[in-house]
Write the structure tokens for this entry.
Amino acid sequence: MRSNRTYLLLAMALTLSIGACTKKSDDTEKSKTMGPAMVSPLPVSQDLPAEVMGLLVIKTPAATFAQMEKLSGLVGPVPPGALNGLVFQGLLQLGFKDTSVVDLQEPAGLLLANPKNFPMPVLLALSVSSKEKLLAAMQPAWQLKDPTDGVHQLSQPTRNLSVYLKFSGKTVFAAMDAKLLEIGMPVLAKSLSAGNANLQASLRVDHLRRVYQAELTAMPQMLKQQAKRGMNQGVIKPGQKKIIDWVLDLSIDKMFAFVEQTQEVNISANINADVAQFQMGLRPEQDSFFAKFLAAQKHQPLKLAALMPSDHFLVMGVNVQWDLVKQDFLDLTDEMMKILLDDSNESEMKATIKEFIPLLKEFYAILGDEIAVAENISDQGIELIEAFAITDEKRAREIFTKMFEKSLALLEKVGDVIGMKFGPGGMKEIGQHRGISILSFSFSPEMPSLDPAQAKMFKFMYGEQMKMYLAFFDKQAVLTMGKNGEQLIKDAIDRARGKGQPFTVGQAYAGAAGPLAKDTGGFLFMSISQMMQLGITMGAAVTGKDNSPTLPKSESGLFWGFRSTPEQVVTTLRMPAAHLREIGQGVKAITALNQ
């Protein structure tokens, strides 16, 4: 039976996010920190009542909405005042005869309570011009009763509705349950005056788990069944079905394991004319494996990202102390290989896999704490660069050489599953660059069962042969892939030796990351406009059209930064106006192309 551990994949970008394990730690480690506190602090963790599930506060709704509309308008048309209009439209539907009594220039908030105990589990806080004007604006749609202990009850007998209001200065708190008003008002009032971000939100995952424990217990199996039914409606091979089922089971199990180990989610957002910045912090349950993993992290400046090119549309770098999960990766690989081969009668293949797993274990043993990756697609096809820290260069070269030899045998079996076959391959040393030896690995894919368009796309991406290049130096390994992979690895070596422009000082990275560019524990950079250009280039390669537009070179991008302390892991998404404008240019170009 598969272990219920989750693998904390703190290459923490996109799908490389923190995982979780259900294993509880039985010891603690000295607290270490990945970097200093980030800008725009997250909400401070509160000891919320058990009935409170979450909070949302917007400091100045009108101004925040207006800035959101301006930034969104850089990508595509957004009517000014659209978001404010939705609020006032909602007030009119509630029966307000005068919506001007609501002041969206002052804080507004929302509290979510236990949905099982409150049919309408929402407490709302709004700023109003005065108590008297608000009550007058709600009549005659609502009938007003005399207040009791400062609580005003309004009702609509024909709809069997009641709402309870209580005022604190010019702030009105409204709920459809008097008990919820009593429980939630002190909590929400405190949050309205706390923090300095445009938007703040908190969700108590532990409270939700307690309320929905029965549903959470049954949900994984239900989701697996639904997902597999959906996948089985397509035409898939038996070998593919096994892999798909395994991936679905693994993903759903680990997602719920992560939920089990997360205590709280905190969110903040700051938005102005130049940038929209969002932060999310995850706090682990005490003594969970998630907590132990965060406690093991430490701050080490990123170095390998400087080896990456400055013109790739995607670059990521992360420094993570991952010894706690190396065995999990090994177990995962072992299990995946068994699934690929469990219907094989080839004793030679089974012997190969038994030899491959120990090599992988040795590789994990010498793998260091930092990884960097860059990817691009140009008229030369795919360009991929990976760099990772190692502790023993000589042993790493030996292990990689042996792993490649074993991989060639395994590829034949894998190829049957994915609809491809792999012809003869080879490995050789192609020379040196700046005194560093470069290894070349290549193999020839055959695609007899692929759709012709897919085969053409594959050859555009990789060429007639798939080639990889590998070098070991300075306690690091660098791997490149693509038609121009040899030049890519030479350029990376040049940057490592101080020649050429490092990615980390490039204009696009600096524009995307802003003040977060320095001293980050991990990051993911992505240029959406350049990704659009890649789609245009790939489409032209397959269709043969040569009238495709060329977008301006990106001078910014989207930036995800990652940091952790023993108390929480924080991810920040930064969306500069400059890049939103570049995306808008790409949207216009693609729209014109398709007309």
Notes: Residues 393-418 form the longest helix (26 residues).
